Amino acid sequence: MAGHAAKRETTPPPGLIARRPTEDDHPRLARAIDRWWGEQGRGRLPRFWLRNFSGTSWLAETSDGSPAGLLIGFMSPNHPDEAVLQLIATRPGLRRRGIARGNVARFAADARARGARRIRAVIWPGNRVGVAFLREVGFSAVDSVGGAHLYGSPAVVDYDGEEEDRTILTLELEPAGQLDLNSVGAPRSR
Ligand SMILES: CC(C)(COP(=O)(O)OP(=O)(O)OC[C@H]1O[C@@H](n2cnc3c(N)ncnc32)[C@H](O)[C@@H]1OP(=O)(O)O)[C@@H](O)C(=O)NCCC(=O)NCCS
To answer: Would you tell me how many other CB atoms lie within 10 Å of the CB of residue 186?
Structure first.
């Protein structure tokens, strides 16, 4: 009825649990990511990620044990001061309720505890929602050499190969004391 639209839920569903995903979770998480991401998500979660990076990744589950949000992240072996946010996704029916924000907060705490000074994420600039989300939780886009902008974001043309342009964003975790990690990813006060 006009003027009586249902109020949008803005908080995580009651009973949401966050835990480390395991390799055994792979079949259902791979299916979930395929569904959540749509066509572009097909094959986005090879078993490799859960076999090797469970210890720095996070899975949020609803009270019935079904997947609600996933973050795959790791410490960069080549850049010990950097953690890498490899993949983040939330079940479509549960978006805009702070689930991904919470996963970033948990990953930031992991990264900081392991000595990272920043988290780095690389994303297709046309993923406007992804870019908006990362900016909202505290990431900043790194200015590109030559100053290219695509879809309104600084972008590195052909970063991942021909026509594979990317925006690079970082979340600074240092200097120590400047960033209250409890507030990273915490819902904004409304
Ligand atoms: C991006 C994604 C992970 C966000 O998950 P989410 O759980 O809905 O995110 P949150 O609820 O924690 O959102 C935090 C903030 O990000 C911003 N944001 C999230 N989705 C947004 C959207 N569709 N449009 C604009 N801003 C958005 C908002 O500022 C939001 O805060 P608010 O709801 O209080 O305004 C989710 O949309 C998704 O799974 N997308 C498909 C996969 C993908 O593109 N991943 C990004 C690759 S890095």
So the answer is: 14
Instruction: Tell me whether strands 82-90 and 118-123 are parallel, antiparallel or unpaired.
Output: parallel
Structure tokens at 137: 């939780």
- Confirm if 69 and 91 have CB atoms less than 8 A apart: yes
Mutate to test the pocket of ligand 1, among 16, 107, 129, 133 (most ligand atoms within 8 A of CB): 133
C-alpha torsion 29→35→37→41, nearest 10: 80
Question: How confident is the model over 98-140, as pLDDT tens digits?
Answer: 999 999 999 999 999 999 999 999 999 999 999 999 999 999 9
Measured distance CA(85)–CA(103) in Å, rounded: 11
Ligand 1 binding site (Cβ under 6 Å of any ligand atom): 36-37, 69, 88-90, 95-101, 121, 123, 127, 129-130, 132-134, 136, 188
Cα(179)–Cα(151) distance, rounded to whole angstroms? Answer: 29
pLDDT in tens, 145-172: 777 999 999 999 999 999 999 999 999 9
* Cβ count within 10 A of residue 72: 26
CA of 91 to the centre of ligand 1 (A): 11
Using CA atoms, how far residue 171 sits from 96, 112, 142, 155, 181, in Å, is: 20, 11, 10, 17, 11
- Measured CA to CA in angstroms, residue 132 lies from 61, 103, 136, 167 at distances of 24, 16, 6, 12
